[in-house]
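in:
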């Protein structure tokens, strides 16, 4: 039985440091380090601390600049699957980079290696240079979702062990079927993000969990309630959010740590401005972040998990009560603050949730 199955309250995940910690490039205790060795050690420690999941984001080149290292997603997930025992391994994937049959076969192999712990996070892409430098098409936003929807329908059938014949606009398969299929469940789980109408429709139709970027409780609760009203077949959709907590013994210490993080981030202004210039302006999550810029790849400080250990635990419990079932965490310095969170905040959340 995995830690996710035993937990009372929300599940906790971490973002792998695929391009180093996505806060500041100037932190004196946490310089950019996207090495396999660091990610391996980080995920093994996260598993030992009781963290339930790790999301390995996908980029081919580092969005912070060509001079920085970038971890490759699927090969790293294969290695993590082989050396871990309990933690869920979620690989982000972009449809234009993989034929659906190739990706589905890789996913089922990762499901086999992990013994039922592998999941896919559908990402419809936003970073233009990654595609244009390689000569890969990057159509307008809604066209990408039309393509992505056809791609995901094929992948979902294949990872479910079905024999697939399709004659679509983009993909034509004649009796494709993969063995072995999953021995542990009907198929690997499917996560997705995005807040455009096209993204929401695809999520409700095909995915199991919807990730939101960091934003206030009232916004998250409203969006969950809106998604619950959409027609859906099968099991109910579950919900996740990105968070960058600053939990300390006292409120004042937490606020001081947050202020220091924003001070460091200011040193990266030019890097972040270049990143936003290279992002697709039609991506709705970019517009959400622009309203309240925060820290972290998932704009995690937008959740407001800053305060004493007890206060952060109460706020997390409030998000869980609103319907959030998985919280994807970032920290800086990552390893030290992950330990603090696991030792101080997670037990408090469990106690609060057990009182319901």
């Amino acid at each position: 039985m995995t830690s996710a199955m035993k937990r009372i309250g929300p599940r906790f995940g971490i973002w792998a440091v695929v391009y180093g910690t996505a806060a500041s490039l100037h932190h004196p205790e946490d310089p950019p380090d996207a090495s396999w060795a660091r990610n391996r050690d980080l995920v093994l420690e996260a598993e030992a601390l009781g963290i339930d999941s790790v999301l390995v984001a996908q980029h081919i080149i580092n969005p912070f600049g060509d001079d920085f290292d970038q971890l490759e997603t699927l090969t790293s997930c294969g290695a993590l699957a082989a050396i871990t025992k309990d933690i869920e391994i979620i690989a982000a994937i972009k449809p234009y980079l993989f034929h659906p049959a190739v990706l589905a076969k890789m996913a089922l192999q990762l499901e086999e290696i992990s013994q039922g712990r592998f999941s896919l996070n559908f990402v419809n892409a936003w970073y233009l240079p990654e595609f244009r430098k390689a000569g890969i098409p990057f159509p307008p936003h809604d066209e990408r979702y039309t393509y992505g929807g056809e791609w995901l329908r094929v992948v979902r059938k294949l990872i479910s062990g079905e024999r697939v014949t399709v004659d679509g606009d983009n993909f034509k398969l004649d009796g494709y079927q993969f063995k072995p299929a999953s021995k542990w469940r009907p198929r690997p789980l499917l996560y997705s993000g995005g807040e455009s109408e096209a993204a929401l429709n695809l999520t409700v139709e095909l995915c199991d969990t919807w990730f939101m970027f960091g934003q206030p409780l009232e916004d998250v609760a409203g969006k969950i309630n809106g998604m619950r009203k959409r027609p859906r077949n099968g099991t109910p959709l579950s919900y996740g959010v990105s968070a960058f907590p600053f939990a300390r013994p006292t409120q004042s210490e937490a606020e001081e740590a947050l202020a220091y993080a924003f001070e460091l981030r200011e040193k990266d202004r030019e890097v972040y401005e270049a990143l936003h210039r290279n992002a697709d302006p039609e991506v709705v999550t970019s517009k959400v972040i622009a309203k309240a810029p925060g820290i972290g790849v998932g704009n995690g400080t937008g959740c407001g998990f800053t305060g004493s250990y007890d206060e952060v635990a109460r706020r997390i419990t409030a998000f869980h009560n609103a319907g959030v079932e998985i919280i994807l965490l970032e920290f800086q310095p990552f390893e030290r603050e992950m330990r603090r969170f696991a030792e101080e905040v997670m037990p408090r959340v469990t106690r609060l949730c057990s009182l319901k």
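note: The CA atoms of residues 94 and 230 lie 25 Å apart.
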